[in-house]
Amino acid sequence: MEALYRETTVVVRLTSHDGQSFMAAEALSRGRYVIWTHPMPGCIKAEGFDAVTKALGSLLKKHDDGVLKLNTSGRRAALERFGKGRPLRELDERLRGLLR
Fold it and tell me: What is d(CA 22, CA 13) in angstroms, rounded to the nearest whole number?
């Protein structure tokens, strides 16, 4: 997936039912933009064709104008939430708490 993310600017994830998407987190952690039907810090929330079209159009305009930068706020949010093994560390802490 690393090679794919290097060649990607925007990931569009349109789902009607979805849990935490690590694809979205991976893309964000690399400074990419994510358009998703569910709210997540750093993502662009869009439901339906019109909203996704508008979001993509906005990003394309910024790209064409030469002002589209890395999604640093999305990267920061993903790394704060998932960086340095945080999800596994939290799971380990919860399991240890149950065993006490």
Answer: 11
